Amino acid sequence: MKAIVLRKINGGIDKQIALADVPKPRLQDEADVLIKVLEVGLDGTDKEIIVEHYGVMPAQAEHMIIGHELLGVIEEAGPQSGFAIGDLATVLVRRPCGLPECIHCQEGQQDFCSTGRYTERGIREADGFMGEYVVENARFVVKVPAVCRPYGVLVEPQSVVEKICRQAAVIQERLIWRPQTALVIGSGPLGLLAALTCRTMGLDVHVWSKSAADSVNADIVRRSGGHYHYADETRAKGDGPFASGLTETAAEWGRGIDWIWECSGHSPLVLEAMTILNPNGMLALLGVTPGHSVIEAPSDLLNREMVLRNKCVIGSVNSSRADFEAAVARLQEIEHQLPGELVQITTDVLAIEQVPGIDFRKIAVKAVVRL
After folding, report:
1. Pairing of strands 119-121, 94-95
2. Whole-number Cα distances in Å, 91 to 162, 232, 321
3. 68 and 156 in contact (C-beta within 8 Å)?
4. How far from each other are the two terminal CA atoms of the chain, in whole angstroms?
């Protein structure tokens, strides 16, 4: 079958992304299913793998199939799988480390793995989903209703948003928390899903991003009833670490921000967001920052803001089965309240042959590989 792989070249010294012919996987267990791949979404991690050749291959392997955002249809189902031929499905990305000292993986919470020895399909030591077929054990497979077919490839990224929602509900039991306003920093696919999610909750949503004011991203935000703000750094007063213009823009909104979603991965904005968050508010970090940047920051101010105003910062990466299932429900709710907006997030549809030469600079919002 055709698949996109990260493979070793030059005797293992270098890597490259290539279209390859690999064996079609077969069921190994009575609880396995064979999934015919329909679509695979591309995100920032895939960009790193394709452009920078980030990714850890399985031991002794010469290649690894990439891709971790899957929508497919069950073509063969083991008798103990609980699935039927024709079911739409997606698959969890992370697999537990299996070590006895990791209580989280032992209890099915591999998204909180404490050893760091987990594997991730298409990313770390396990083949991913960007091929014509995938075999997976049913314990990691999530059914997707047929009605979700137009936007079902978004379940995996939405699951990351749902994990924040779930954790926020638990953490904020420390007080009476009824958020009214939300700020989303960044308008990539994850930022847009966070914004649409907050709109379904009835929050007053502001999105602050470097995408142009007439971009597809901005249009989606405005059509959902949110407010879009172009990240104009010239508005900043001063030239310190908080010279992005975010503080000045947020000061004009009047109500303050109860919930901030940092989806850009630009680390100075994490610190700035701490200072503009309302008392008792929550800052959720979903963007991953590459590199090792060093900046000067007003540490005393940040400490006072967090302690004296009871603010909370949480990070989230990966997600559990419960989050995938919540994502399926949330996407249906978004579609019900804001019909047609989810499909607008997928702006670029590629054939599998186009992946090795993809230019991410030309992707408007999100690219999906359609098989």
Report:
1. antiparallel
2. 16, 39, 9
3. yes
4. 11
- Asked whether residue 119 is domain-assigned, the answer is yes
Is residue 338 in a domain? no
pLDDT in tens, 329-344: 999 999 999 999 999 9
Is the pLDDT at 141 greater than 80? The verdict is: yes
CATH for 176: 3.40.50.720
> What is the Cα–Cα distance from 197 to 150, expressed in whole angstroms?
18
Give the DSSP H/E element, type plus range, for residue 7.
strand 2-9
The verdict on 206 and 284 lying in the same domain is yes
Task: Confirm whether 167 is domain-assigned.
Answer: yes
Q: What is the pTM of this model?
A: 0.95
Mean pLDDT, range 109-113, rounded to an integer: 95
Among 318, 319, 366, 371, residue whose Cα is nearest residue 345: 366
Reported as half-sphere exposure (CB side, CA atoms, 13 A), residue 338 has a value of 27
Same domain for 132 and 11: yes
Residue 350 domain boundaries: 2-144+345-370
User: Do 165 and 311 have their domain in common?
Assistant: yes
Look at residue 309 and tell me if it is in a domain: yes
**Confidence band of 11 (pLDDT split at 50, 70, 90):** confident
Q: SS3 for 219-235, per residue?
A: HHHHHCCCEEEECCHHH
Burial 262-283 (b: 16+ CB within 10 A, else e): bbbbbbbbbbbbbbbbbebbbb
| Phi, psi (deg, nearest 5) at residue 243 | -105, 35
Q: Are 55 and 119 in contact (CB under 8 A)?
A: no
What sign does the dihedral 299-304-307-312 (CA atoms) show?
A: negative
Lookup: tokens for 234: 């010239």
